Amino acid sequence: MARSLITIILIKLQRLIRQENAIKYGLALTVAIFLIFLLFLARHPFTNIADVVGGSDVVGSGHDRVAAERKDGANVLPMPDQNDEKDHPRDGPGEMGEAVTITKELLGPEEEKKKYQEGFDANSFNQYASDMISVKRRLPDMRSKECKEDAKKYLPNLPDTSVILCFHNEAWSTLIRSMHSILDRTPSHLLTEIIFVDDASTLDHLKQRLDDYIAKYPKVKIVRAKERVGLIKGRLMGYRAAKGTVLTFLDSHIECTEGWLEPLLDRIARNVSNVVWPVIDVISLQTLAFKSDTSNYGTQVGGFDWGLQFNWHLVPERDKKNRPHPTSPVRSPTMAGGLFAIDRKYFEYLGTYDEDFDIWGGENLELSFKTT
User: Fold this and answer.
1) Cα–Cα distance between 198 and 224 in angstroms, integer?
2) The model's pTM
3) Each residue's pLDDT tens digit, 160-174
């Protein structure tokens, strides 16, 4: 029945296109999208679309658009002289997610002010502060008591995962900090590999230096595009190189907190058609401070407007009443595109991503609508 209705709608649209009637075409297109969505809701009212798992924090930096907006060869700060792997003092800059506050006007020589500004211009976040922070900085465990209790109920044989991060001209400190937070806070038996996908970066520190650095970590590999391909094609490159049972897609400027992965895998282990995304906390663009909404543990659900732009909504009251506690999983009609986990075979069953998508934006809604 569903396929018949969609076929009828498409036939009507084709007839209008032949008539070259722009007004009728526009109205019909709007009606078609609306009817398809209503039909989708009638068949699967918010079921197995995207589970938000509270308390399993993957910390997003809040500058998702950076890679898409930067130009090739953008100026960046020179790499800090510090040994990235040495032990840093427990009270070092940014430890436990504390803010690193820098007043540009009070920096010493003009050269330092220039470095500060260049870092911000290149990344749209405070690279100067990021480079002061250890790539292995500690973060607080934000899990609630209830979340930790739920961890005792996870299935015993959780699936393994490949973690895929795409980047283009990413700052060294944020990229390597992303890698170490995954390695240091993920049970080894659950992590098959970390796959970096380099979307034709032009910066020197992302070439041989990066190859040499990750060579010390057997579970980390890098796949390089010969020319710019954009986020979606880059993720598909990572998917094709991945060996894990589950694919976990993350941004290249994130930090994971303790217990971030297990609840995602548990939901998938219980139902392979679950597409799961975590609470996404915030790292300040200015101070690199870790910020978390503990009042509701940052849990929101996804939606979209008539322009098909993704947006956030509070958890509906009907779903709040069905949750044992604020960090329990909650169903969501749409998903954010930056960070999520999906069973590999189910991803293939859905047809993966549409390869004609450029950069980012829209692919998350398409995947949400296909997840039924």
Assistant:
1) 5
2) 0.79
3) 999 999 999 999 999
